[in-house]
Structure formats: structure tokens, C-alpha cells
Amino acid sequence: MSDAAAASALPASRLVPLRGAARARHAMPAHGRWVTALGWQPIAYSEMHLCAHYYPLAIRFSRGLPLLGVILDEAYLTRPLVDASGTWQGGYMPMAVRTFPFQATGNSVDPFDDLVVPADTDFLSAEAGTPLCRDDGAPSSHLQTLHRLARQLLDSRRSLAAALDHLLIARLLVPLRQPPNGTAQPATPQLHTVDRARFAEIEPAAFAAMARHRFASVDIAVACQFSLHRLRSECQPKSARSTLAASAAGGRGLDFLGMEDIAIDDGDLFSLGDLEATHSGLDASGSDAPEYPPV
Amino acid sequence: MLSESPIPLEGDVLARRIYAPQAYRLVREIQIVPIVHTEALKLSTWFPIAWRMAAHGPELVVLRALLADSRALPPPARGLLPLLLAAYPFVFDPDTLPGPDCRWMFDNVFADEPTDIGAPIITIERKPALATRLRLDALETFSVEFAVTRDIGLALADAGLLEPWSLSFDVEGRRIEVAGLHIAHQSGFETGRYAPILARHGFAAAQLLGLHRLSLFRAGLLLTMAKATLAADRGPQLIAQVRVP
């Protein structure tokens, strides 16, 4: 299995180089419902902090290797990503969604040779959509953008491997619970998050070891926990739920500051996407994740 | 730490009434509020968390808005109050640092927008009313966590890991500027420079630094709210321009 295939949450499909695909246009569906059907998609480290405000982060395993991504399956989420008419209201759109179904292999600087697509994808068309090549046969600016983002995802996946291994070594990963009544999308794999109780019990010396060369593993662990406010309570890992309940019962301070009421504050009572869409193009889905600091 | 005219919480002051925090102008409009590290988990969902240089060292703060105007706060987050605002008008003695022995005081200000008749500070049985107890609980929680919060800030400053955060924008012909804030050194996160901080302060520092990084991505929302607020003051035509990117 290729690096690209490993990162996809979709059922195995034969991936072919873009050069071999006869259809020369990128045809995205007009409605946003297809995004939620993806279930889970990988993210780049550069967009992790922003994504954590909009989606639950989750880790899936592919061939035993942990991969960091976001949950798009609405059965897991505290809010819908698309409205009844199919209009996107999820806020920031991750790179993997914007580049779907293109995936970089890292084998070439030429987008036509480097990018692969599922052989049977509906996202390529001979007539409709955005052209992938210019009249002279060179990659279009749209394809160059897709390629740049797909390479960024690939590079990030490789650079995060060690950080995610830290979480594995520290036994911090705990499975999410399936949504009730079998409502999950077929494409959504078994997903994991960071166990809050185990993370809180890590010794200072071990934290220092995790951050000895880079802060990334600690960063990912905190972002995973933070993003749980976007995850339905029925899907929260058992250990995290029991820890929060115990904290709330045992101490006034933790009760005051715990995460459970974040889910209440931030769930169905209002839509962050609506708020931001109303006021401006903040976190516009057409751009890369913003540079750090974000303003 | 956060008060305009603090007076001792004793004598005739105990006969005063208190109102919901939002009844006080300071709570509605204050942009930067000191917090403790345990508040970061909740506040970072809506607001940037940073440090401000105070006389006693780096002070962990939350930035609630870019304008001193309650309309510049994200509407869903207007009720999300840091501990010091939840406790208001009860405040710490400004002459001492929060801690186990710190004196609680009363900010002698007028509740300019009360929404109800308020509550007494003490009941007719001479016991603290529920509203009083909840506020004093908030102050106590703050004072318990203040030392750890301060130590983390000092450790970051001593290691040269705080850098200025420039927040300056031209919006609707007006200069918006929030000065004096610092953030954790960004390029340091790609190195091992934070390892000694974690070795010393463990989970508290690990979580705070992670949440701090996440929280900075709420600054864009505050800018959006500031633009909308200023546009509203200019009239309907400009509101439309702001709302349609």
C-alpha cells in the first residue's frame, strides 16, 4: 500500500497517476454533503491548531502507524457541517478536503506524475469542472495549488510520525466510541484520541523527554483534548468521561472549569460557522492555513 | 489586579446589593483580564491567551476584544467570564498578590446596567448570600492557582521564551491597537527549548502552552468582531461591505 493510500479513510481503491486519467477537469459536487461522507481525513501540522476549533481531531491507524486527522462524519459531531440544502457551514475546510481526491506520492515534481487519484473517482470529468491543464499541456494554476497542498500534507505526515509515536509509546491513545444506532458513515475508520487522565499523570521528566527535540507530540496531545468539545458526548472515550465526572464531583475548581460545559456552551446552541460566515471571510476555505501567529 | 475603587469588604459595605457581573461597565468593556492556568481550557475556545508584563512579572491574560465595547465580543462568548469577572465586584486587594492570605475587597462602583434587583451581599441571617459565595469561590480558585501560573510565566521569561505580539490594524479608518502583549516564542516550538519548562512545571505548563497556541487562532474572530462593530457605527452600507467578503 502506498503512502497516499495509507492516509485515506476510504475503502481501498486502485490509485492511478493523474497522467493516466483521461478526464482533465476537477469536478467538485455543488453541495457539501460529500464532505461528511468522507468520515475522516488527514491534516497537516500547520493547520492543526485551526482545525481543532472546528472539528474533533482523531488518530487512526494504518498498517500500525498512527495518522492525525479530523472527523468529518456528522454522527460524531456536536454540530452539522452542512445545512438542509447542502450548503457548507463547517467553517475552515481542511487541506485534504480541498485537494480530494488527489494525493501526493512524493515521487516527482511534476503534478501529473506525482499526484494519484482513485481510478473510479467521480471527481474528474471530461466536460465539467476546473481545468487541470492549460492549452499547452502544462499544469493549470488550480492543479499547481492542489499539488502544493497535497505535498504539504504528505510532508507533514512524514514529519509527524515521530511525534505520534510518542503518544503511542506513552500509551496515551484511547479509542473513541461508535455513534449510537449505527449512524456512522461507512468510510469512518476506528478512531482514537488522547486519554486525558493518562496525559495529566505524565511525570514532568517524561514531558521534558517528549519535548526534547520538538514540542509537537505535546502540542498534538493538547489539541486532541481541546477538540473534544466538538465531539458528541456519546462518542467520548470512556476513561475521559469518567475522569471528568470524577473531577466535577471532587473539586469545586475543576467543576468550575471542566470541559463538559464547554460542550454545552459550544454545541447545538449556536453555530460558530454561522457566526463567522456572517461577519466575514474569516478562515476562508480557499486559502491555506494562516501563518502563525494568525493575524 | 482588576478594580477601579476598591474598599474593604466590611461594615456598611456588607449591606450593599450586588448585581450580575454584566451589570457593571468594567465587566462589559474590559479587553484584557488576568487569568490562571486552569482557566485556559475553557477560555481558549473563544479568546486568545497571552502574557502581559506586570510589576510582579509576566501575567497570564485573556484578550476578550480588540475594542473596549461589549459588541466587539463574539456574541456566544459574552457570558463566558474569566474568574476575576465572575467574581466582580469582589476583587483582590490591589496592594498584594493573590494568594491564601490575600484580602478580598469590594469595588465601589455603580452598576450602570442592572437587569434585576440584584442580591444582598449577606442575608438577614448575617450569612453570605449565594451570589456572594459563588463570587468568593471564584476569587479563592484564582488565588489557589495564581502561584503556579505566575511561576510558569516567570520561567518562560527567564528562558527568553516570551516575545512581543503585535496587534495593530487599520479598520474603517481607525487605528486599532492592543499593546503590551507577549506570546510564547514561536520558533522555539520546533526546538527543544520548552523541555526545561516542562521538566519543571509538568502537566500545567504542557497544557497551558498547548492551549495558548490554539487560542491564538481566535484573534481573527476578534478582528472580525471589531470590524463589524466599527462598521455598525458607520451605518448600514458599511455593515454590508464588511459582511460580504
TrEMBL record, chain A:
This is SapC family protein. Pfam families: SapC. It comes from the Bacteria.
Automatic annotation (TrEMBL), chain B:
InterPro entries: SapC (IPR010836). It comes from the Bacteria. Pfam families: SapC. This is SapC family protein.
